[in-house]
């Protein structure tokens, strides 16, 4: 029988863990899952038990990531909010997925909108130009990322934007 109803899942202590619509024992529409403290852990839209549409994942520390999924695969724009330990600040990262792989320009900004990083992805791998900036917006380094992992023609700058050195690196996966 074609039944539609609200399904609720509870932690052992009785607190709500998740809820959403169910049709024929498959998740449909919006579902929300909670941490034991009652704050949302994720929100997602489902069609026939497969994520389709916007998905937002939260961490207990306030960080989050928003993506779009088509048939369970990331597709379209994504944005994340997180603490970057390298720059010692909260940041936003913007990018796009095509068939589950990073594609095109990805950027990282601080919460005031200052551009910190720009990089390009092709089929899930970094390729093309890369820039990293100081919090004052001046270039820290710029160069080119190759698909083989090499970084070529990298120029390093001081906090005043004065070029300091140029290098080429080969990165190896561990």
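Sequence proposed for the structure above (174 residues):
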């Amino acid at each position: 029988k074609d039944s539609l109803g609200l399904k609720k899942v509870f932690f052992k202590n009785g607190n709500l863990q998740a809820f959403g619509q169910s049709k024929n024992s498959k998740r449909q529409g919006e579902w929300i899952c909670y941490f034991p403290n009652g704050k949302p852990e994720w929100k997602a839209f489902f069609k026939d038990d497969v994520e389709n549409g916007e998905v937002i994942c939260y961490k207990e520390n306030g960080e989050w990531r928003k993506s779009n999924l088509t048939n369970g695969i990331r597709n379209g724009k994504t944005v994340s909010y997180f603490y970057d330990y390298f720059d010692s600040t909260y940041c936003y990262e913007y990018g796009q997925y095509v068939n589950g792989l990073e594609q095109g320009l990805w950027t990282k900004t601080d919460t005031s909108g200052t551009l910190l990083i720009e990089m390009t992805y092709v089929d899930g791998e970094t390729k093309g130009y890369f820039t990293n900036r100081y919090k004052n917006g001046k270039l820290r380094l710029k160069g080119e990322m190759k698909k083989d992992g090499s970084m070529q023609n990298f120029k390093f700058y001081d906090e005043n934007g004065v070029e300091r050195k140029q290098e080429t690196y080969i990165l190896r996966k561990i």
